[in-house]
Structure formats: structure tokens, C-alpha cells
From TrEMBL, chains A, B:
<dbReference type="GO" id="GO:0003700">
    <property type="term" value="F:DNA-binding transcription factor activity"/>
</dbReference>
<dbReference type="InterPro" id="IPR000944">
    <property type="entry name" value="Tscrpt_reg_Rrf2"/>
</dbReference>
<keyword id="KW-0732">Signal</keyword>
<dbReference type="GO" id="GO:0005829">
    <property type="term" value="C:cytosol"/>
</dbReference>
<dbReference type="InterPro" id="IPR036390">
    <property type="entry name" value="WH_DNA-bd_sf"/>
</dbReference>
<feature type="signal peptide">
    <location>
        <begin position="1"/>
        <end position="24"/>
    </location>
</feature>
<dbReference type="InterPro" id="IPR036388">
    <property type="entry name" value="WH-like_DNA-bd_sf"/>
</dbReference>
<protein>
    <submittedName>
        <fullName>Transcriptional regulator</fullName>
    </submittedName>
</protein>
<dbReference type="Pfam" id="PF02082">
    <property type="entry name" value="Rrf2"/>
</dbReference>
Length: 141, 141
DNA sequence: TGTAACTGTTACCGGTTCGATTACATAAAT
DNA sequence: ATTTATGTAATCGAACCGGTAACAGTTACA
């Protein structure tokens, strides 16, 4: 396993909540659909709750629901909630400031990589959770 | 150090080669500008050579040069050369096929994440190495 | 010819991230 | 009280990355 699949699982979780409106789902039940451990689900639910996308209640009959309607939750909201944003991945050690390339490459790279990341996020921003559940329903029939 | 900075270093290396046209640079010299180990540089040069972006000659007076002009090398070329493309990061374990969400979420996710990745790559594809070195020169004055 | 310079590749170490798992404190319904 | 949940910390194994040493192969040149 190479990269993080937190985003994929978080969208999965949010889709489950969106298709069970008004009903609180437990981390155990969600884990059964995702096919993973309930603690993994709770960690992601915790991140989604901190971002204000999900509300959880504890105790018996507890569980989680969406904090707002699926039309008003974008995949970028979910992505930002569960994946850390460390900015573009630059050199570990600062390049040689005595070299004309070395002393300027990072600022140039940041500009380009930020633009590329913004283009990616624009796609996620214009895709709503409601569109995802719509596509899920369309795939069923 | 969390993520890979291979792309950043590879663009750095390519910029050095682009600003020394016709002159073969050694991995030792390049490592001095990048501020890292020559083997790290050679690993990236090897990947760039396999992608046909760089030509290297061995032995005394050896070194590396660009295999084509900086105007005809895009940052996407460099990105594809040094960073593995594993496709979108989906679930480790396959989701539960007995669940309507679980059995369809991955195909829906692939469509969205592929679109997002394509948007990012479009930015890198329209940025040439020549533009990078132009920005480097502009930052100098 | 032989030596110095340079590439190409492998192997290994130390640090970090990730998912899975166990454990346990806390909270709420009945 | 007991049961059912969440919330969170700790730990484990696997994977990836950058740095480093080691070494084989190649080329220029004295």
C-alpha cells in the first residue's frame, strides 16, 4: 500500500450517511460496508465532524449523520477535512543559495505547483456529495 | 519529511541542464546546487533518461545534457518520468459488494478523481521547462 | 597502458506515514 | 446498572523516501 486512501473512504462514509437521511449510522455498520475496522471509520468521522460536515451522538442509539444537505457538501470539503495540506512538496534541504537556479527554483516551483493543485481542487469543489450519490443510484439500475 | 520531493528536484535538475546548453553537467556538480547526494541526482537523471528527456555520457568528461530543447519539455513530461502513476488511491480492501454504496463507490470515485488529476496534469502539460528557466532569470534581475 | 573521472545500480539504514488492531475512558438510553 | 456507542491513545507491521556506502562498467587522456 503506497498512498493514503483516506479521501476515498471518507467519500464512501459520507455517501452512506447521505443515502440514510435522518438515520444515525454506527461506525460498526459503516465499517461493514467499507470493509475495514470501526476505529478507522471513527477516525475519519472525527475529522469530518471537526470540519462541520458530520454530527455524531454518543451512547446507546448513537451514531453519525450529515450536518448539512448533500447538495451543500463538496468533495473538496471532504478532501480538506481528511487529508493534510502541507503545501507543495519541495526540497528536503534548502538548495544552494550560491547557485542562480538553486536560490530561485523553489519560489518558481511553488507558483506552478499551487496552480496545478488549484486546478485539481476546482474539480473537487464543483462536485457535490449529492452528485456522487446520484451516480451511485444510476449505477444500480 | 512526509511526501516525495522527486518532482521538485527533477525540475531543479532539468533547469540546471537547460541553463547550461551544450555543456554536460556531472551529478556531483548538480548535487552541489540541489544540496543532496550525487546518487539521488543520478537516480533522477536515470529516470529522466529512460523517459527520453536527458542524455548521459559515461567516463571522464562525462555528464548529462537535455535530449531536446527546453521549449519542448513540459513539466508533465518530467512529472511522469519521476513519479509513479498508480492511479487514484482507492480502498485497500474491496468494499462490501452486498451494500449498494459499497459495490459502486469505487467506479464513481475513479471517474471523479481521474478528472481532478487530469485538471492538475493539464496545468503541468502547458508549462514548459523554458518557462521555468525564464521565470528563474526574471527572479534574478 | 594505466590512471583518473564519471555513470549506473544495488543494498542498507533511519525516519515517516498508513491502516489495522487492542484497549480503555466517556456518554447516553433503557 | 447494563448495554451500546463514540473518542482517543498506543502499538504493530508494511511501505516509501532520502541519504549513504560500495562497486562494476565506461571513457578520456597522459
Amino acid at each position: 500500500m503506497s498512498r493514503s486512501c483516506k479521501f476515498a473512504v471518507a467519500v464512501h462514509i459520507a455517501s452512506l450517511l447521505a443515502t440514510s437521511p435522518g438515520q444515525a449510522l454506527t461506525s460498526d455498520w459503516i465499517a461493514g460496508s467499507v470493509n475495514t475496522n470501526p476505529v478507522v471509520v471513527r477516525r475519519l468521522l472525527s475529522a469530518l465532524a471537526k470540519a462541520g460536515l458530520v454530527a455524531s451522538s454518543r451512547g446507546s442509539n448513537g451514531g453519525s449523520t450529515l450536518a448539512r444537505s448533500p447538495e451543500r457538501i463538496s468533495l473538496l470539503d471532504i478532501h480538506r477535512a481528511v487529508e493534510a495540506d502541507d503545501g507543495p512538496a519541495l526540497h528536503h534541504q534548502p538548495p544552494n543559495p550560491a547557485c542562480p537556479v538553486g536560490r530561485n527554483i523553489q519560489s518558481v516551483l511553488v507558483r506552478v505547483m499551487d496552480r496545478a493543485e488549484a486546478a485539481k481542487e476546482a474539480v473537487l469543489a464543483t462536485t457535490t456529495l449529492a452528485e456522487v450519490t446520484g451516480a451511485l443510484a444510476a449505477a444500480e439500475k
